[in-house]
Amino acid sequence: MYKIYFITFGCKVSQYETQCIKSCFESSGFEIVDMENNADVFVVNSCTVTGSGDSKSLYSVRKLRRDHPDSVIILTGCLPQASPKSAEKCKEADIITGTKEREKLPALVLQAIENRSRIVDIHEYTANDVFEDISCQSTQKTRAFLKIQDGCNCFCSYCIIPYARGRCRSKPMASLIKEAKSLAESGHKEIVLVGINLAFYGQEYGLRLVDAVEECCKIDGIERVRLGSLEPEMISNDDLVRLSRQPKFCPQFHLSLQSGSRRTLQRMHRKYTPEEYMTLVEKIRNIFPDASFTTDVMVGFPQETEEEFAESLNFVKEVGFAKIHVFQYSPRNGTIASQLNGQIPKNIKAERAERMKSLGEKLTADYLQSLVGKIVPVLFERENSEEFHQGRASDYSLIKIFRENSKKSLRNSIFYVIIEESRGDHCFGRIIDQEWR
Predict the structure, then answer these.
(1) Distance between CA atoms of 196 and 160, rounded to whole angstroms?
(2) What is the helix (H) or strand (E) element at residue 3, kind and residue range?
(3) Does pTM surpass 0.90?
(4) Secondary structure (3-state) at 279
(5) Residue 384 contacts by C-beta under 8 Å, 6 or more apart in sequence?
(6) Which of these, 14, 79, 136, 179, could form a disulfide with 10 (CB 3.0-4.6 Å)?
(7) CA torsion sign, 416 to 422 to 423 to 425?
(8) How far apart are CA 395 and CA 247, in angstroms?
(9) What is the DSSP string of 207-258?
């Protein structure tokens, strides 16, 4: 029996897909190990959203080869799919595959071991591709990701992902319901619906994302349904009204922003203005008074002036995000933005990133402070230490409570907690009522 170790880079979709690949290997008789030194085979599931994502993935492969010269090393995921020629140059990898047909990986490993040959097995996407439905068993005990959408049709000027993932396609509803029921039977109380461009779910079937939410909310055992990152222009007022009718829906909205400057958004080929984005935020707050908003912000996009960056800072502050993920623009070969004049020097990008991160930290602190005195249901995930239990509120805020004299685990239980204090990136509270469900 061969032992296999996984390293994953990138988004929630990548994390989900790693679980699916693990399931494929387990079904083929491989043993999954959680310590690098115990493995015979290594899988690096790569990310290519940014240049640093490429670098981290390739560095990981090269380090594994140095440390484990006789092992079988697999490089898979978005990097090889988007940049097959670059991936093939990584001679330290024995097997290179993209984001298609990864259920074949166990057979490829056995082939590589038997023939002692290098395998490159990358398949291009076509317009007729359908959702690749690989069975997946989550190892998480409380929250599980459920990938229901893949691909992107947007072609933002900076983004390589449409080339790494192909066009939009959706998980069939019957398959989605079946997997959600399986997660419930495994004891998961919360599922997070994820996708490359999640808001496009169901278009080929005449469905919308809210249809998937409603079906998941019907399943016994699932107590909370959460959404991954959303494109603002794809959310309608009717969608929001329907979501508000679902008590199990968690009103945490990760609305991808990228920039708060109209001119920068235009160069990015984003399909909304700051004013339209703010109108959506206001609609959501009217329907979900306790909603939280998180987002991604890019700094240093080509030709971004100090004035445009200031507009972005002011807009982020005006929205009042609970958390922002800040990243510096990274040129990707094959995209329009990489060919634009006015590329921003690294030192300026780094300085702007620090200013945006500083604002983000303040906004997080302000948001958590606003929770003090409120009563929220918390799904407890694990004991942080001998002193604390910790879990997530519906808005995804991290909540801790003192364990006091009880050594009993609260994991996978939902309790009402009154928030008494905020500290840094989390809040402290105490349980005030019996188990919620």
Answers:
(1) 12
(2) strand 3-8
(3) yes
(4) helix
(5) 390, 400
(6) 14
(7) positive
(8) 13
(9) --HHHHHHHHHTSTT--EEEE--B-GGG--HHHHHHHHT-TTB--EEEB--B
